[in-house]
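Hi Y.,

Following your request, here is the sequence exactly as I used it, all 266 residues.
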Amino acid sequence: MSATEDLILSTAVDAARQAGALIRANYGGVLGINELKQFDIKLELDVRSQELITAILLRTFPEHAIYGEEGIAGNQASDHQWIVDPIDGTVNYFYGIPHFCVSIALRVAGEIVVGVIYDPMLDELFVGRKGHAATLNGQPISVSGRAQMADAMVTVGFSKNRESIDAGLRRFKELLFQVRKTRMLGSAALGMAYVAAGRLDAYIEELISLWDVAAGIILVETAGGRAMLYPRDSIGEKCSMCCSNGKLPLGWVEDEMAAYKPLPQS
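Below is the corresponding structure, written out as tokens. Let me know if you'd prefer a different format.
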């Protein structure tokens, strides 16, 4: 890895760890709420976490762009774009469920080349980078070898509009009768990290934001798996995701997602 690549990775890891320390320190405390939506919660801490990440990334790479759940920063004309979810699993966090993470990815000229996912409650740092094996706390990881649906553990997520929920429920019912178990965990990034580590065999969601899955894509791919992203709007912010160990027969899910292209409704 070149000196520049080394600096990119170390900066991303530092940002993820510092943001993770911030959100862990506030876990279980009194939380400021910026917005309560029907299916979501926006915390003041989300903003603080992204501001911390942005400051760390732009201090080292002032010419880069930041594209995050809590807004944009930096040079938006740059071909180096950091994609940030400062707390993936905010609703879990708010309700005191210790399953959430910080997710940071770097996209260069449209290709995701680095992904860092940090779970501050378990102190688990997942790293994926182009041309290298995925790691968990510095040790190589790989997707599972399970190739039969009957042996598989699959996690799914449900979206926040009726059309996508209906499509997801139809698929979920089919999966229920094919796999050993399903789980709904509340953090897309950690779901993908668990696929990369072989804990789960697939993660499927009908409508998800790019910042939720960007780091997970490179992580799954460098762990030997398959991550298929299907844009659902003109700017690519919303997408469908099917990621797996690459061994399960999930072609029918990918075909359905490729053919089904609704615009997300508010």
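The two ends are 43 Å apart (CA to CA).

Thanks again,
Q.
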